[in-house]
Amino acid sequence: MSAATAAGKGAGTSHHVDAHQVDPCHTDPCQVDPCNIDPCLEQPPYPSVSPALFQKFQKLIYAETGIWLGSSKTALLCGRLFRRLRALEITSLKDYYECVAAPEQHEERVRMIDAITTNETRFFREPRQFEFLAQTVLPRWQAAAEQGLRPRRVRIWSAGCSSGEEPYSVAMLLARHLPPEEGWDVRLLATDISNRVLEKARKGTYPIARSAELPKDLLHGFMLRGMAERLGEMKVKAEIQQMIDFRRLNLDQDCGLVEGPFDAIFCRNVLIYFDSASKRRVVTNLYRHLIPDGLLFVGHAENLSSMFSELRSLEPTIYIKAADKEEL
Predict the structure, then answer these.
(1) What is the domain extent for residue 92?
(2) pTM more than 0.90
């Protein structure tokens, strides 16, 4: 996620309140504009959380995302939310919970989810899956299209796309093997629950040091090197960016996606953040959006064979929506 990834991007309408004119003891702490905070104000102490309060956060986060924070995550919760407390001039997690749990505080709950979710990714992560895509899947799609057995239309969903490395990796590979000049119409939907990482993904700009993660032909074909004030950066070419629609989406909620059904879905290292009930809901939703014989790519810690018999394993981390796995 990423989850998830689960654990993407900050959103919301700022309130133009001068922090120098606010009495924090008599003001809704969620109404303070973090851009107007006086840096000379005393910073709140590092927050702590009681077991009872941690359970309240567990339930709130679960209700919002389907992600269940285990009891070992108390330090993570305190550390990740520290900036939100400081931005809002709130001195305790108890007060912050009362703020964020209020029904009208939807945008602050989005910021809370942004803060606690973990977004770790890289280009062409899990190289075996990309080898399988390039060496097995794409040649079969090409052959089927040449025989008139399938349209030259491909739809891919990157579910839990984090800061964009995954969908850009897939898009580059498809652009190389299924070019528009040969009549292919390839589009990707990339979703995440975090507005913060989605903002990064849409920019498509990364440190040049990350270039080692890309195959050289794709690096030279689809990345631009930054110059002058952009020195030390690289940017995804517009032709690749235009293939992808980035959008905020909660995988634990029913979503009718008009972009589907999808030929393949990547949901890697996201399901590990869900409990069994949420995981089944998410996988059911993914399955529903696959075409017959559609592919689902998951992470190495995410074995679905025992929980979802409708998906057949082609090899570790790669599943097919088909009665007969020999169809691919």
Answers:
(1) 19-116
(2) no
